[in-house]
Amino acid sequence: MLGLNNKDTKLLIAVAVLTLLAPFILNPFPADSAMAQFNAGYPDLMQRFVIFGIFAIGFNILFGLTGYLSFGHAAFLGIGSYAAVWIFKLFTYNVVPAIALAVIMAGLFSVVIGYVSLRRSGIYFSILTLAFAQMSFALAYSVLSNPKFNLTNGETGLQVYSGDLQMFHRDSLPDLPHLFGLSMRSTYNLDLGAWSFSFNAGYYLCAIVLMLVFYLSIRIFRSPFGLMLRAIKSNQTRMSYTGLNPRPHTLAAFVISGMYAGLAGGLMAAMDPLAGAERMQWTASGEVVLMTILGGTGTLIGPVLGAGFIKYFENIFSKINDSILHEWFAFLPDGLENFMVFIVHPFIGKGWHLTLGILFMLVVIFLPGGLVEGGQRIGKWIKNRGKAKDSGATTEPAE
Amino acid sequence: MDGLILQILNGLDKGSAYALIALGLTLIFGTLGVVNFAHGALFMIGAFCAVTISKILNISYEVVDPNQTDFLGNPLKVKTPYVESWFGPEMGTSIIDWSVPLAILLTIPVMMLIGLIMERGLIKHFYSREHADQILVTFGLAIVLQEIIKYYFGANPIQTPPPEALQGVANVGAAFGMDLPYPIWRIVYFCFSLGIIGAVFAFLQFTTFGMVVRAGMADRETVGLLGINIDRRFTIMFAIAAAVAGLAGVMYAPINPPNYHMGMDFLVLSFVVVVVGGMGSLPGAVLAGFMLGILESFASTTWATTTLPGINQIIIYLVAIIVLLTRPRGLMGRKGVMEE
Amino acid sequence: MGILEVKDVGKRFGGLQALGDVNLSVKENTVHAIIGPNGAGKSTLLNCLVGKLIPDTGSVMFDGQSVLGRSPHEINQMGISRVFQTPEIFGDLSVMENMMIPCFAKRDGSFRMRAIENTMREKDVVEKAEAMLVDMNMADKRHMNAASMSRGDKRRLEIGMCLAQEPRLLLLDEPTAGMARADTNNTIDLLKQISDERDITIAIIEHDMHVVFSLAQRITVLAQGTPLVEDNPENIKGHPKVREAYLGETAA
């Protein structure tokens, strides 16, 4: 189907079903139950899942296929957001031109940054992209927000004010980002018994975009271009001595992944018309690296899994506080209860980043292939139980 | 003329910090072949050693002093640091006053221990893995270290004053008939850095240990074949690099009140310094560190910032990009380091 | 005029004159061996031919065009393929994928964006790669990970990948170095077969005299960066200068 083989078609259908039914799947617990804190079916959280999924899919096209580790991709996300908000400010709240400009601007910037950074490989490349990202952050945070020339509105962040031009805005249209009149915030709540499900227009826009770009990434992975990118990762010397020029290949991959990041940034602004410089900081770049690695570098589904995993646990961990912890450990004797709370306390609430850092190290040390490899290992273990071990040296097709 | 020299002086303290961090980065990279993204965190931990010492020295007990009363007439609670009661008020006060230089004594063993644990416990297992994996695992470690510091010390910068005798401003140009007001502590920091840089170079140049390490930097396999236990020496080298970063941090605390993310801020710039200086070149790292520090200071003048707003924020990155495009190996880079 | 003309090529590394005034002419559809003791400049010469090094003086013409100043992929696209001393293959990819990459390079040039097409549906490339795998006697290994093969198989795959590009000149850098006797003989047979069956010129740098004398029709002896003699194998064997500079050394 759609020019894909059976396995890929199944994967695409699985992703489509999961994203379309996410409002149900992510709200498995009744709204009033104690377990409701583990629900994740809120519009803004679901939007974040999908948007970061898109960001990570794009990052994986560069890092997963070519092995070039960029530490500056958040810059393109930020550029996308700024571009989208400027469309909102100057022209219209319609998200289509905003997202289109976000992708184009991110593409232009990634051509320039990629052209310079890709002159070097390995760690030089990582450091160069890191330097570019920090420079973009400095530009957005302070340099480009002076009274004479205010492009980014500095610390406050760029947003739409009532005095803005909005050339094509009409009163009949919603005063928020919309898709030809359909507000991104419009949500339909469905109550079924004790359960409550929200269907949000913005989420579904993001979900459809995710399916499209996921499909595109499958096509790229299976294309001759994708093969060349994997060849670059495997052996650049052989690549050059086979008459192939690695540089335009890596640049194309860099620009594609930059445009994915711009798309994610544009969608972010479309969900909430605001763009801030903190989106471009190196921590944000580090986050997308982590998502990709946690899910499984170079696999198709890995980045989406990683993004969902991290955003979900970020949400849960940030919500947990000491009183919840006391509830959990209430079954223990008093002294032990307090001790457990004391031990766990640094990792929850504001300590989420500590958990994230530890997780990051554990994954790199013990599970370099990420969740996908973990799943495969478990699957193999179940399969091989009882059977004689078959240690064939066949290649694992990337999935 | 005075202004020019003043700007150079202003760049020296930051330049010293860059140079020291870049020196450690280069040592680790040159000896172990590992790119250490957690090196900035070591600098930060050094700075927090100063904070810790000054907190420890300030631990006090309270006594109710019946002779003193507050404005309501109640007896006043007086806090006395233990140090003052042990060594007498005068001696105690001056110990507290000199807490930052005293912290050096704590920093060296603490940083060497941290370096040792890091290398033996973590980095050792990454020698044979890809550079990307090394970057990622040390990046994760950097996050963990900085979050631990944030958990115990909070997110706000902590003021850590230098000793009173070294506060204030001196006119360093007086002897030459120039007017060059310059904070005394920064002079101290600059001299301190020069001392450490000199010590590291002397150590590498004049000791057998240093000779082996230098040989190892040039050709690791051959030195290994000679039957020299190069691994242990590299471990010690890592500990030394960690100590250098820590010392750079502890003395920097009075200049820049320590906060948990200062490590990453300096790390990114120090990487740029290493790349500009030439990966694997120790003199290059030091030279580029001072050069970029001074350049940043010039870009921060009112003239520069009014001509090109924000130039001080991006000048280092711009220079790095230009250098890499024109001299891909950096100013003093050797051929064959990290190519292919 | 040979297909490859090397004129007065010199190259210095600091104080070391690695190559001095090398003249060499490789005739079309022959097997030409370049031999010489260690440090004679064989590898330097080879690197000058493929664009990895740029000589300080002289010219290198391939089929009437200069290769100097061109990057390795451009020189390859002119029709020069190189086999390395340690096999350079795409270790992370399957054998079939390894073989398809040079087929794409031959068909599409050094860069062509084909990001939407499905690789396995590029009929011409798939067929060509499969035929080449059959030629190389490794069709049964097509799904294997290239890195997991034996050294001999890696060598054969690398030669096959070079042939898939239909080069006019095949450069081999000590193709049997570090190989067991059986693998060496297999490689000799393979190269013989290639030069018999295809319109191809082969230039080979080799240490192993057995390999050289079983393959080469023409031999250049290099010593201390300059060609000593150039002749056919029979004359080389008996040449006094060669015995002194080279064969004598190996005998010692």
Walk me through the structure.
- The complex is a heterotrimer of chains A (399), B (340) and C (252).
- Chain A is mostly helical.
- Chain A has a domain at 6-30 and 41-282.
- Helices cover 62% and strands 6% of the residues of chain A.
- Chain A has 16 helices and eight strands.
- Residues 389-399 of chain A have low confidence and may be disordered.
- Chain B is mainly alpha-helical and 340 residues long.
- Chain B has a single domain (2-57, 106-326), classed as ABC transporter involved in vitamin B12 uptake, BtuC (Orthogonal Bundle), CATH 1.10.3470.
- Helix content of chain B is 68%, strand content 7%.
- A two-stranded antiparallel ribbon of chain B has the order 1-2. A two-stranded antiparallel ribbon of chain B has the order 3-4.
- In chain B, helix 2 crosses helix 5 (99-121), helix 5 packs antiparallel against helix 10 and helix 11 packs parallel to helix 14.
- The longest helix of chain B is centred in the first third of the chain and has 31 residues, at 2-32.
- Chain B is globular and about 75 Å long.
- The termini of chain B are far apart.
- The mean pLDDT of chain C is 88.
- With 252 residues, chain C is an alpha/beta fold.
- In chain C, helix 3 (95-108) packs parallel to helix 5 (151-164) and helix 4 packs across helix 5 (151-164).
- In chain C, strand 1 and strand 2 form a beta hairpin.
- Chain C has a domain at 4-79 and 167-251: Rossmann fold (3-Layer(aba) Sandwich).
- Chain C is 39% helix and 24% strand.
- Chains in contact: A-B, A-C.
- The interface between A and B is large, with 42 and 40 residues.
- Chain B: Keywords: Amino-acid transport, Cell membrane, Membrane, Transmembrane, Transmembrane helix, Transport.
- Chain B: It comes from Shimia sagamensis.
- Chain B: InterPro entries: ABC_transp_permease (IPR001851), BCAA_transport_permease (IPR052157).
- How many helices of chain C? The count is 9
Mean pLDDT figure of chain A:
88
* Oligomer classification: heterotrimer
Sequence of strands across the biggest β-sheet of chain A: 1-2
Strand order of the largest sheet of chain C: 6-7-8-3-9-10
Q: Can you summarize the main beta sheet of chain A?
A: 2 strands, antiparallel
Order of helices and strands of chain A: HHHHHHEEEEEEEHHHHEHHHHHH
Counting helices, strands and paired strands, the structural category of chain C is alpha/beta
Main beta-sheet strand count, sense and barrel state of chain C: 6 strands, mixed
* Low-confidence runs of at least 5 consecutive residues of chain C: none
How far from one another are the termini of chain C? 38 Å
Secondary structure category of chain A: mainly alpha
Please identify, by name, the CATH architecture of one domain in chain C: 3-Layer(aba) Sandwich
Q: Give the helix level of chain A as a range of percent.
A: 55-70%
Estimate the global geometry of chain A from the Cα principal axes.
Answer: globular
DSSP E strands of chain A, number: 8
Helix content of chain C: 25-40%
